[in-house]
Amino acid sequence: MLYEVLHPIVTPLATAIWRPDVVGTEHVPATGPVILASNHLSFVDSLVIPLTSPRQVAFLAKAEYFTGTGVKGWISREWFTGVGSIPVNRDDARAAQESLDLALAHLRAGGAFGIYPEGTRSRDGRLYRGRTGVAWLALEAGCPIVPVALTGTDKIQPVGSRIPRRAKVRVEFGTPIQVAGRFDGVPQGRARRQITDEVMASILAMSGQEWAGEYNQRAPQGSA
Q1: Distance between alpha carbon 153 and the CA centroid of its chain, in Å?
Q2: Which residues make beta-bridge pairs with 176?
Q3: Partners of 170 in the beta sheet?
Q4: Does the keyword Membrane apply (predicted)?
Q5: 70 in helix, strand or coil?
Q6: Which residues contact 156 (CB under 8 A, 6 or more apart)?
């Protein structure tokens, strides 16, 4: 598939250009279902994580990444399709749930799945409260969650910038959060909230971001 062709080429090239500092890859299970839950600072996050992860990881990705035009649009579409990303129509709540169902199927097939609990990228660099879809997936699949902290990716493609820049990037894969058997008898809503808060606390400790303490909101239509 396209991923198997591009990954051996793109990874050494990207590593030579940005020289990312990658820590904790041993925390990512070599096989079996696992969720990689990351903070979200830039469009390039969904390129950086697959390039630095020790195994192939698929993401939910906004539908716009599959419909762009020109060279950038083609590269975006080919990459996200190649790594098995699942398009999300963020304006349709039912479509979002259907996408989570597809993500669950990917996990149940033994895959690694990446998700941004904040829902959308942080435009001010703060870490926002996590939405509980990540916990729903983990509970349904009975799989661990590996928190991931990205730093510096916002400098590669700052908000409003269209041309990538060189910047120091760090990717830290944290200690897995186990959910199987921990929440038997706990109300589902409470379990999802507790798991999500654990994930965000781990990301916060690794990333050193300021805690926003509220949910992130999508940028207005038409903004970068």
Answers
A1: 13
A2: none
A3: 21, 151
A4: no
A5: helix
A6: 18, 42, 44, 164, 165, 166, 167, 169
Q: What is the mean pLDDT of each run of 10 residues along the chain (224 residues)?
A: 52 57 96 98 87 89 81 78 73 72 93 94 95 96 98 81 75 97 94 98 98 85 49
* DSSP states of 84-147: T-EEE-TT-HHHHHHHHHHHHHHHHTT-EEEE-TTSS--SSSPBPPPPTHHHHHHHHHT--EEE
**Containing H/E element for 68?**
none
pLDDT of residue 99: 80
Q: Residue 174 in contact with residue 202, Cβ under 8 Å?
A: yes
What is the token pair recorded at 65?
């990444």
| DSSP-assigned letter for residue 111 | -
Distance, CA of 169 to CA of 149 (rounded, Å): 11
pLDDT of residue 28: 98
Token pair recorded at residue 33: 């279902």
Query: Contact at 8 Å (CB) between 70 and 45?
Result: no
Phi and psi at 172, nearest 5°, equal -120, 125
